[in-house]
């Protein structure tokens, strides 16, 4: 098991994943669609964000609670839909949905998930979102 106490940034998590996950699964998770231009632009934009360190500041009454799509959330973030999360870990989507529920943030299940909507509903009590890819096959969409 990886020593999670030594993780200080996303690069640390990527190094651990690269060692623990089969290459094709890692490459799938660490990629974007088509030309990957949005993926690269997001990386560049996040690199521009710098946090100003402030010490000895009273944060006792700070609160990140908010609403997203009318739903109360512990902080304004959601676990995004990631297709085939089950490739990374057995029951990956179920574990992610449980984590989102525990931390009070939305979870979104991908159309291309390994687990079904029913699987997630059976293992969580919080409402969750679903990303529907509209396919040409109407019967598939209805199912």
Question: What's the layout of helices and strands?
Answer:
Elements: H1 10-20, H2 23-29, H3 37-48, E1 66-68, E2 71-73, H4 92-103, E3 108-110, H5 117-123, E4 129-131, H6 138-142
Q: What do you see in this structure?
A:
The protein is mainly alpha-helical. It has one domain: TIM Barrel (Alpha-Beta Barrel). Helix content is 38%, strand content 8%. The protein contains 6 helices and 4 strands, in the order H-H-H-E-E-H-E-H-E-H. The chain has helices at 10-20, 23-29, 37-48, 92-103, 117-123, 138-142; strands at residues 66-68, 71-73, 108-110, 129-131. The strands form 2 sheets. It has a two-stranded antiparallel sheet. The radius of gyration is 18 Å and the shape is globular. The mean pLDDT is 90.
The helix/strand order is HHHEEHEHEH
CATH topology: TIM Barrel
Task: Count the DSSP helices.
Answer: 6
Widest sheet: strand ordering: 1-2
Q: Major sheet: size, sense and barrel closure?
A: 2 strands, antiparallel
The assigned structural class equals mainly alpha
Q: What level of helicity do the residues show?
A: 25-40%
The CATH C-level class name: Alpha Beta
User: Please, what is the CATH homologous superfamily?
Assistant: Aldolase class I
Q: Would you identify the regions where 5 or more consecutive residues have pLDDT less than 50?
A: none
Number of domains: 1
The CATH architecture category equals Alpha-Beta Barrel
Q: What spatial form do the alpha-carbon principal axes imply? A: globular
Roughly how many Å is the radius of gyration?
Answer: 18 Å
- Beta-strand percent range: 5-15%
């Amino acid at each position: 098991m990886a020593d999670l106490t030594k993780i200080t940034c996303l690069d640390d998590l990527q190094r651990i994943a690269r060692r623990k996950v089969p290459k094709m699964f890692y490459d799938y998770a660490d990629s974007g669609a088509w030309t990957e231009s949005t993926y690269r632009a997001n990386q560049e934009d996040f690199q521009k964000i710098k946090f100003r360190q402030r010490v000895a500041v009273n944060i006792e009454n700070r609160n990140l609670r908010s609403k997203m799509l009318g739903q109360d959330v512990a902080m304004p973030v959601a676990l995004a839909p990631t297709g085939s999360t089950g490739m990374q870990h057995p029951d990956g989507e179920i574990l992610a949905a449980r984590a989102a529920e525990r931390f009070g943030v939305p979870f979104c299940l991908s159309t291309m998930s390994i687990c079904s909507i029913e699987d997630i509903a059976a293992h969580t009590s919080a409402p969750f979102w679903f990303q529907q890819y509209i396919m040409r096959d109407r019967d598939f969409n209805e199912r």
